[in-house]
Write a structure and sequence with these properties.
about 210 residues; mainly beta; Sortase, Chain: A; 2 helices; globular
Length: about 210
């Protein structure tokens, strides 16, 4: 079952990287922006439900807050899944309860602190081009701390190992979503220039971190 789940997970994420849109027209600051893996819908009220795993009352702790001191992020974490219908079917969803200030943990993947690559996404900017939760993600450097507070109160500390920028079709799925060689947390958002006819940006920003 675990192998089947991982295969379904990676197949779904192929769609995420191929089709994910970043629904604002604001270009990323030209500093050195490049890649992400998040669908940023500007009209969440019309977005179809996302596919999320069912959890029992005895389910393990899940992430509740993401803290990145170097860029002043202290954000609530929502569980997100894959959009199952509509114009963006197959894309990785982003938060809906507080879409610009919360981040989304892909709940079908590993939990932070488990072996494998946990993934958290967030918006770069809002529908008006104003900064959203991951606006400054590009400013992180190797060695910076990324902290996760779990629902049971446990605190996990990760350290940035590298930052990479990819075009959607060139992103290494195994590195981002499927690396089980350690305990990782990867952060993703949009980057690059806005492509109006595709409703997405040219690049994806991925911040790779490992458990400290």
């Amino acid at each position: 079952m675990r192998v089947v789940r991982q295969l379904c997970y990676l197949v779904a994420l192929i769609l995420v990287l191929a089709l994910s849109g970043c629904g604002t027209s604001a270009a990323t600051p030209s500093a050195a922006v490049s890649a992400s893996t998040v669908h940023e819908a500007t009209t969440p009220a019309t977005v179809a439900p996302t596919a999320l795993p069912t959890r029992s009352r005895n389910a393990k702790a899940t992430p509740s807050r993401l803290l990145i001191p170097a860029i002043d992020i202290n954000a609530a974490v929502e569980e997100v899944g894959i959009l199952i219908n509509g114009d963006f079917a197959g894309d990785l969803a982003t938060p809906t309860r507080s879409q610009w200030t919360n981040v989304g943990w892909y709940a079908a993947g590993p939990r932070p602190g488990e072996r494998g690559s946990a993934v958290i996404d967030g918006h770069l900017d809002d529908q008006n081009g104003s900064p959203a939760v991951f606006w400054n993600l590009r400013k992180l450097h190797a060695g910076d701390e990324v902290r996760v507070v779990m629902s049971n109160g446990k605190k996990l500390t990760f350290r940035v190992t590298r930052i990479a920028y990819y075009s959607p079709k060139a992103a290494p799925l195994q590195d981002i979503f499927g690396n089980s060689g350690g305990i990782y947390l990867n952060l993703i958002t949009c980057a690059g220039d806005w492509i109006p006819n595709q409703h997405q940006t040219t690049l994806r920003l991925v911040v790779y971190t490992t458990l400290a």
